[in-house]
Design a protein that fits this description.
alpha/beta, Rossmann fold, five-stranded mixed beta sheet, 8 helices, globular
Amino acid sequence: MSGRCYSRRARPTRNILHVLLIICEGATEKNYFDNFNKREWRSITIKTPETNTTDPVGLINYAISQKKYINPDITWCVFDGNTHSQETINKSIKKADQKINIIISVPCFEIWFLLHFNHYECCLNKDDTIELLKKYIKNYKKPQNVYKLISDKTEKAINRAIKLNDLHKNNGLSTYSINCNPSTQTFQIIEYIYKLVNL
């Protein structure tokens, strides 16, 4: 027999310095962000607790309740802009009160995936976005975890998302507007993570 010891005491532990809380509207988003809990990134841990709530105000309320137990350094709520009214989104912004960061993707979270492959400025709906994504990820279906297929293109996606933001801002639109189509603020989370792990 081998003399190796596989006891709990023999295993290295992660030195967690930063806790990030991400409340997601759907499983697609959760599956994606869970990939950033990498063993080699010992400076962060990411919490993505499950919830059946999809309403933006409900997501904010859930985030507030989770913060009491998790005590994160920063909290985000991630949801799509295509299924909610501007009034509902505005209510969620007011509820968040700058204590919770809101991340909206218009028309849907898949626009973030799509920007890894190409830049798009034409107005899209959810079905359009998924069909375009299938050109790059064959047979894509929600809530498929595509992280390994796109992670090497993330810097390009960040730059394209920022470019879209600048375009909409130049047209007088807020990044919280459902009229910012297409757009996604997901890059803000990724940039924050990269800064913590010094990538």
